[in-house]
Design a protein that fits this description.
Largest sheet: 6 strands, mixed
Helix content: 25-40%
CATH architecture of one domain: 3-Layer(aba) Sandwich
Distance between the termini: 57 Å
Structural class: alpha/beta
Number of strands: 22
Strand content: 25-35%
CATH superfamily of one domain: P-loop containing nucleotide triphosphate hydrolases
Amino acid sequence: MSEPLLEVRNLSKRFGGVQALSSVGIKAYRGRVLGLIGENGAGKSTLVKSLTGNYQPDAGTISFAGADVRFDRPQDAADVGIAAIQQEPSMFEDLTVAENIFVGNQPRGRRLINWREMRAKARDLLVEIGVSLDPDSPLRELSVAERHLVSLAKALSSDASMIIFDEPTASLSQAEIQHLYGIIEGLKAAERAIVFISHKFDEIFRICDDYAVLRDGEMVQDGLIADVTEDDLIRQMVGRTLNDIYPKAAAEIGETVLEVEGFSHPTEFADVSFSVRRGEILGFYGLVGSGRTETMEAVFGLKPGSSGEIRIEGRSWQINSAQKAMEAGIAYVPEDRQRHGAILPFSIRKNMSLPVLGTIARAIFLNQRAEDALCDEFGQRVQIKASGWSQPVEELSGGNQQKVVIGKWLATQPKIVILDEPTKGVDVGSKSAVHQNVGDLVAKGLSVIIVSSELEEVLGICDRIIVMHKGRMSAAFERKDFSSEAIVAAATGYAIAADHVDGGAG
């Protein structure tokens, strides 16, 4: 290989008593993709922020294009040609696509912004990445995927020679992910260096040429992706094998707890029927837009206009609100934990007590001692790693934020727990902890429904799997009949056998 475009040598960064990075070194080459791999808290974010001028390292050297550089502010990194596309891009809702692409870098005439030139350049950049967006469209009208593409166009507008992608596919559909892969291949062909951060190993092996593994702020291993296996990377990250990440919980499956019959919604799903037994883990699998999440939202009373019957332990319930669902014994951990699962600026303590304020308050006064006891019980039960219960949730890693949301709902003492994409955007170590928590739930006799787009997850921990396609149940599988090929076929609408569609307890 040629000389690296980026070379980091012995980079270190400390925050108070925490050593976030310790003598880390990586190399990134033109026309190649470097996969930056590690658990939440491994130091990836600190490294990226050091490369983009948000943090200044305490020691070490950053060399770019053959010269040692120092970034005292983000603009310094942008000026040499480094751009980062965050998992949730910070953009301006009320500005147009073109204005977001060129914010701070608008083409000008003598003194004023040249709006015609800015729109034309924005249109050219969007065409370059294969998207037909109107440069004059307000950003607020765009989907998550489209915002990512606008963020990419912004990076290209500065003629960046190295682009960092931080979990870029976390909120994208399969079609959008494939489009992104094509864009990255085009960037490689244009001799740009790519740093790609992902917790999804299929992505790492699909598009990366090189890899670097961080653990506890230190470099563990690097090399060619062709020379390692998935198990190798997991062992380097967390010291566990793939089988440890998806453990099958041993639980005694008992009587039917939840029965849903003929559930329908005018626009989202139709004729969905299934049941869940005590101590059972039922998986709902399907592609984005298949109706999985919408069905679970309706069961939890969040979809007005739904029809059908819900029975819990034989009693029929009319669930038309989240409060009614909680009364019936249902807990729902939503897919978007940051927007719908937690109040990020609030402390762990305040988030954990929210669903049960009525039980730990005296008149209008909150019982602080009861709130602390609640956190002690359920925070420790889901193994939240934090400096204390007063720490704001926004300061936690993605995996620990998810644990806060799960712990919060366990405090309601539910009979049925619905987990919608419970490991989305978290590393393999946190996945293992979440799956262990699921195992603890069913061992205690709860019924669990897991909605997931990760096939390995539902195959690994579920007792049954229901597959949805275009708002309908397309197949149901008992564990003894699990087949990744058949499940994917049912999710995509191919080779669906009518006798597989059976949502009953079996």
